[in-house]
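Reopening this ticket.

The earlier resolution said the output was attached, but the attachment link was broken on my side. Pasting everything inline this time so it's all in one place.
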Amino acid sequence: MERVPNLTRDDAVSAVRNPLAFIAERWTPQPRTVRRAALAALVMAVVIVVTGGAVRLTGSGLGCPTWPTCTENSLTTTRAMGFHGVIEFGNRMLTYVLCAAVGWAIIAARSEKPWRRGLTRLGWAQFWIVMGNAVLGGIVVLVGLNPYTVAAHFLLTTALIAVATVMWQRTREGDGEPRPLVGKAVQQLVWFLVVASVLLIAAGTVVTGAGPHAGDSAEVERIPLDWETVAKAHAVLAWIVVTLTFALWFVLKAVDAPKGPLDRTRDLFLVLLAQGVVGYVQYFTHLPEVLVGVHMLGSCLMWIGVLRVLLSLRERPEAAGDGLPAASVETGALTKA
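Inline output:
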């Protein structure tokens, strides 16, 4: 067993001044540890979406009627606030779990040898998005669940998922120049798919803002649109995304593309089919809460799937002089994940 070195006064000062550098000098994580840390941040970003949906669907959006405390006189929920207070306060506490997951990803990325600055920046980008969204979440409560702020809150979390997905992918790659695996026409088709997916998610927030699940039992402002009409427009966008995905799979097969993009496109298509079934069932059953929650989870998985398709169109080998161990650059997984 290795002896733990004694910490000197200079070490303590160094740890206070730059704790990340201090840890990095004394710990070198395995590549799989960095990948797991990035994946944990991504998983927690999805979890916070689902639990946030649970807050709205149980009518607990104002379970804690103020922010940053739960009530004017209490930091935490009180017995008098009942079930709704527990749900809302519990979701607030999960933000700290998300911060811990993002913090672990930052520390692991900073400690990897050699230091990959781009990977660390992706971790910090997640941190600042989480901080910004925490403040926006407080504003949502203070303005009484205004639907436009609720929509912005969800869209910012969608941005968090995007950055977390990119970081997870980058942990499985080298730092060499990206090499395209498909032609420009295919790349353009995928970008059309990305844009359509963004519009689909944005339309979903409008359905939420106009729909019956306001987030609280009290009178809450809604977007002044007929939610069924908006839901139909949302469905049209969904069919556009499905059509683009199927067209992409067909084109990839026709040009004999590598297995990676084909597999990711197939995975996305299956997620879209499942999401479509849930979407139509919830529409014809008048939006039961459980199915709406499942649909929110599906929205996250769809967005991750779209991004994985985009990222599978290129490979990034180990950069010259990186000195990365061979195990850290899984060339086969690069083009398939």
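Reporter confirms the inline version is readable. The mean pLDDT is 87. Strands lie at 179-180, 314-315.
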